[in-house]
Amino acid sequence: MNQLIQLSRHNYIYRGFTIHKCPRNSITMKTAYSVLNNGNYFGRDFALAEAMKTVDAIRDGEAHQ
After folding, report:
1. pTM here?
2. Can you give the residue range of the structural domain that contains 31?
């Protein structure tokens, strides 16, 4: 399963990981995306595509930079 599924306005499922869209930062005006799986936190990215790349790197066993 390599498709992005939107569960709600703020939550997505991608390859078994949850990607949560965080509220926009009022100073920088950036939206962050948290990557989670089974209660484990795998970081924060500033674009949905970056969050998906993080999941791909974790699933493929690559080191995330």
Report:
1. 0.87
2. 4-59
